[in-house]
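Weekly puzzle thread! Below is a chain. First person to post its structure in token form gets bragging rights.
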Amino acid sequence: MIAQLIRFSVHNRWLVLLLATGLFAWGAYAVRTSKVDAIPDLSENQVIVFTEWMGRSPQIMEDQVTYPLVTNLQGLPQVKYVRGTSMFGMSFVYVIFNDETDVYWARQRVLERLNYATRLLPEGVAPTLGPDGTGVGHILWYTLDAPGMDLGEQRAVQDWYVKFALQNVPGVAEIASFGGFQKQYQLTLDPNKLTYFNLSVPQVIAAVRANNNEAGGRKFEMSGIGYIIKTTGYLQSIEQIQNIPVKTDNSVPVRVADLGTVQMTGESRLGIFDYNGEGEAVGGIVVMRYGENADEVIGNVKKKMEEAARGLPEGVKFNLVYDRSGLIEESISSIKNTLIEEMIVVSLVVIVFLLHWRSAVSIIIQIPITIAASFILLNAFGISSNIMSLTGIALAIGVIVDNGIIMAENAYKNLAIRQAELTHEAHPTRPTSAAGGGDSVLPGSNGQPVVSVERR
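Winning reply:
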């Protein structure tokens, strides 16, 4: 088989060169389209189910939320195992699938099972799927540099403007906000006043919810014009909440202001985000979608930041806290320089030791073709060009060169033996020995081996 392949290649040189050129061109295109990242993604193929039930202890979360979800998600196909974690007011369930399972197929199957599992959870508890990212999906962290703006306003700008702008970037799975205060209206009830008016907390909550909605009416026509009637009932100020009637006592309405106090404040926090010891900061984390090109996504996010910065309040700008693109560029540049240096050193060594430019070219030309072909395989298997994969290619250059040198040496040896046999046939009185003492094989000026035979 190998002999036939070699014979075919020798008799069809131009075809072999054409195939090698096509392979190199395909590899060059694969290099340009290869996904670039600094580190390989070794995380498991998982789907995260997040459930929030604020105010509940970890034990309650474990018994009423985490346990029902874990037991119902264990029967999914291609699932290796299911892990659950409970904490104060939150539950996390990690569904680990086999490595060859498509991540979006897995998310669909988990979502189908959640439609049934939700019925086993307490009323008002709704589990949600986490972003379709990986453990190394945090590619960019930023904060808002907003002097003179309080943390609540900064968080509002982040949640209602910046977050929506950056989520439209292709390849971004989520923009996770952190820091600051999430503004909310807080109603603090007086137990003594509730007892005096014979009211309960659920009654007050129901009254506030009933007065914070839109109500639609009917359509009527007047003078040939149709009108749609609706009422606007969304609460927009503290005064409106205070004036909500809860019940009527002797034709006198009992308002929320008669039962407690209403104030604008921030949601209760379990921690803060401090930046370089200079105080609290507000910002976001850019989470990359599964299987995307990290370097390309970071570049697109930065371009979108430049567009979004035009709509920020005066004096507010972005401050990049963590940017993986710098690490990516340094890693790729280091490996690229190493590859170039290895190719130059190997080429010089081959030329110096063989002292035959045609043999040296035949060996050196294998290096770029083989490296280009390796990127075709990287793209085919979905492996990014990172520091690990490129280091493997750099280490393989020695094997590539060794293979070429061995093949060239073997070819020269067989040519020398064949030339000695032909010389012996032409001059039968002059015994020759290609491998014995006194004979030497030297490359000629035209690239063919010349056999020097010593007469005995």
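Puzzle host: Confirmed. Bonus trivia for everyone else. Residues 219 and 228 are 5 Å apart (CA to CA).
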